[in-house]
Each structure stands twice: as structure tokens, then as C-alpha cells.
Specification:
It contains five helices and no strands. It is mainly alpha-helical. It has a domain of 101 residues. Helix 1 runs antiparallel to helix 2. The protein is extended, with a radius of gyration of 21 Å. The mean pLDDT is 75.
């Protein structure tokens, strides 16, 4: 809102709202990957004096992938590209073979040298440390409703 006063003494963080036409190409579609990685760093309680654990080593791989451009002519990081590609795979229910063929096509078109993984397996290895697992839920035929938690014994109308 115009003329809104931020209450910084009460813990409110100042945010800048861009008006239409004000955003430049660099800020459009910001993925906030840095914020997510900082949260992971706090969760693991990283301390530079301790010997690195497996989780810490995976975190630093993520950090490197978040800063490493996919190829020399882009600002898109390897991690951002792979996570967006995996999100598209699950959103549109691509099979792993379809995903692999798509990655192969993108890899053939990208300028060399590029850092795009070759297949779904390598993409999953790269993003494993994000801890974004999933639970597969079998759906019922004819669009029946699935009840869980407190509603397990209910019947659909």
C-alpha cells in the first residue's frame, strides 16, 4: 500500500512492492533459493570448526549448485534449473523416460559446455539434500474421495 509505515520495532520486515512496469528482467521470477539454503544451514547448525558430516557435505554441494550457472551464457543456476524441471515433471505427470528424453533434447540444444545432468537419476542425486521427499497416495476409481487423519471413518455424500 502506498504510504504504509513498516513497524520494524515490532519485528515486521520491510518489503518493497513493485508497481506494474517497475520490475526489470533481473528481478522477474526470483526463486529465493538463497533464503532456502540459509534455512537449511541454520537447521544443520553448521559450524566451521566441526568436521563436516554427510549432511554438511551435501549442503555444500547444494550451495555450489545454487551458485554455478548452467552454462556460461546464462544467470540460471544448475540447481534452479533442475528443481524447476523436476517440478514440471511432477506437475504434468511425465514418466521418467519422458523426462530423460526431454533432458537429452535440452542438453543437445544448450551451448557447450553445459552442466545439465544426463537423466532423472542424476537430477534426483543433485536435489536429494533438499529433503523434499514425497508420499505416494493411491487414488480411488470413479473420483471417490480420500479421507485421512481425523476423517478416516467418514463416508462421502
Amino acid at each position: 500500500m502506498p504510504d504504509y509505515e513498516t513497524w520494524s520495532f515490532h519485528g515486521e520486515k520491510e518489503t518493497r512492492v513493485e508497481t506494474e512496469g517497475e520490475a526489470d528482467d533481473d528481478s522477474a521470477g526470483v526463486d529465493r533459493m538463497d533464503e532456502m539454503l540459509e534455512a537449511l544451514q541454520l537447521e544443520f547448525g553448521l559450524n566451521s570448526e566441526d568436521p563436516p558430516t554427510k549432511e554438511v557435505k551435501e549442503f555444500f554441494k547444494l550451495l555450489q549448485a545454487s551458485e554455478e550457472p548452467l552454462h556460461e551464457h546464462t544467470k540460471v543456476s544448475l540447481l534452479a534449473f533442475v528443481t524447476r524441471l523436476i517440478a514440471i515433471k511432477y506437475k504434468y505427470l511425465f514418466s521418467n523416460n519422458c523426462f530423460n528424453d526431454l533432458v537429452q533434447l535440452i542438453g543437445d540444444v544448450l551451448l557447450q559446455p553445459h552442466k545439465l545432468p544426463n537423466d532423472m537419476y542424476q537430477c534426483k542425486r543433485l536435489t536429494k539434500a533438499l529433503g523434499m521427499g514425497y508420499e505416494k497416495i493411491d487414488m480411488f476409481p470413479d473420483g471417490c474421495m480420500l479421507f485421512c487423519d481425523d476423517h478416516v471413518g467418514e463416508k462421502s455424500a
